[in-house]
């Protein structure tokens, strides 16, 4: 527990002291909300008749949280391995689950604050998002989504050897996934083949679960399906992350 506490406190202090990271974690997704809110203000999706904000807000929210989880742990794992910090930790009784657990709790805290800030801004009169009474059901979806994408970040950080490599690989994964999963553009307005492709992407289920819970457009069954999909991806990515984790660039 002492190792877990020390790693958690160190992670929190390092995170809060990095102003650039704070900006891109919390302000960057809000910029997307503002841009899309200005573009689609007062418009509805022709295929469903629902306001664009019902698609854009949950989609950008889930993408922002997933992005922060991937980048946050990816950079840390790469830097700790490159600077031999992981090798030094390995020489202590600290097991791998303790290391990843400290990053996981930090990611959950960051993601929860991100989501709260984002929803509060989206509820401003200009954007007009009105959360449904089912909004608390977004929390399990949020936690499962963070779990899945944190595992993706561990995989990226285990293979990348430089900050540039982490950024390149993570962006190649997250940016196309955002468009194909409906984070930036409603899936209802996309061609059928793109909707089919989205079914094999974890962000699709993250988007669907958050949207169903916050907007109330989907029932409990839709949220359960989304949670099931995210859980399956979390298990697969988690197994790969544990299998491919490297303590140093030589191992």
From TrEMBL:
Main location: membrane
Annotated compartments: Cell membrane; Membrane
Annotated ABC transmembrane type-2 domain residues: 20-248
InterPro entries the record matches: ABC2_TM, ABC2_TM_bact-type, ABC_2_transport, Nod_factor_ABC_transporter
Source taxon at top rank: Bacteria
Sorted UniProt keywords: Antibiotic resistance, Cell membrane, Membrane, Transmembrane, Transmembrane helix, Transport
Family: Belongs to the ABC-2 integral membrane protein family.
Stated name of the protein: Transport permease protein
